[in-house]
């Protein structure tokens, strides 16, 4: 029996630009912008992203360029590291300053992303953001940006891996970046997408 090739749901370049642009227009939306920027720039799973503490990302007043992920927050309890693009590192530094200006806690074990409601611990400014809230943030911004389709939060991780493959064509680098245990897991990102085909056919004689 033949098995169909797995179709990955990723954001297109236009969708990525649209949602990052929309969330960057107001300081009030910086938290939401950073949730999406971190997911797209690191490939963290949603559970790993909301588990981030200030101490995981902060070095002095700025941001670390290499994050060590605590074992208890990662899939399979394996821990690991993730490297930040310089653009994202600057954004994280801005987020830390933004949090300080708002009076949000910056101790090492404070959540990086807070909810805007009461939060799980009932604090006035909100507790640690939940997975459900992060998913809702992404869904809401897709709606605001007028996306023709809806994708789930994990599509941001697929987008990260796909973009990394397109930029490097190095399956081992994608494996390392995604923290996969085997190159075969990362191999799904080497398959051309409809966007790849569209770009490839532009110079065909017809």
How would the blueprint of this fold be written?
Blueprint: H1 13-23, H2 30-42, H3 46-50, H4 54-57, E1 58-59, E2 62-63, E3 66-69, E4 80-83, H5 86-101, H6 131-144, H7 154-168, H8 171-178, H9 183-186, H10 194-200
Antiparallel strand pairs: 1-2, 3-4
Helix pairs in contact: 1-2, 2-5, 2-7, 7-8
Share of helix among residues?
40-55%
Rounded to an integer, what's the Rg over CA atoms? 18 Å
Beta-strand percentage range: 5-15%
The quaternary structure here is single chain
The end-to-end span amounts to 37 Å
Element-level helix/strand string: HHHHEEEEHHHHHH
Unreliable runs: 1-5, 118-123
The global form is: globular
Average predicted local confidence, pLDDT: 90
User: In terms of structural class, how would the helical and strand content be classed?
Assistant: mainly alpha
Cross-sheet strand order for the largest sheet: 1-2
Describe this structure in words.
The protein is mainly alpha-helical and 206 residues long. The protein has helices at 13-23, 30-42, 46-50, 54-57, 86-101, 131-144, 154-168, 171-178, 183-186, 194-200; strands spanning 58-59, 62-63, 66-69, 80-83. The longest helix has 16 residues, at 86-101. The chain contains ten helices and four strands.
């Amino acid at each position: 029996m033949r098995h169909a090739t797995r179709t990955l749901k990723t954001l297109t370049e236009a969708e990525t630009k649209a949602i990052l642009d929309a969330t960057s227009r107001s300081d009030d939306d910086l938290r939401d912008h950073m949730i999406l920027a971190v997911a797209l720039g690191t490939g963290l799973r949603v559970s790993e992203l909301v588990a981030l503490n200030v101490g995981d990302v902060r070095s002095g007043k700025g941001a670390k360029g290499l994050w060590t992920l605590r074992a208890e927050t990662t899939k399979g309890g394996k821990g690991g590291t993730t490297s930040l693009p310089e653009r994202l590192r600057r954004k994280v530094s801005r987020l830390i300053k933004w949090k300080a200006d708002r009076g949000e806690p910056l101790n090492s074990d404070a959540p990086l992303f807070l909810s805007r409601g009461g939060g799980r611990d009932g604090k006035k400014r909100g507790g640690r953001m939940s997975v459900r809230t992060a998913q809702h943030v992404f869904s809401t911004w897709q709606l605001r940006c007028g996306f023709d389709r809806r994708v789930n939060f994990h599509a941001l991780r697929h987008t990260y891996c796909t973009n990394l493959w397109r930029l490097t064509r190095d399956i081992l680098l994608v494996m390392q970046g995604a923290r996969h245990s085997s190159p075969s897991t990362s191999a799904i990102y080497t398959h051309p997408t409809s966007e790849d085909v569209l770009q490839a056919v532009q110079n065909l004689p017809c």
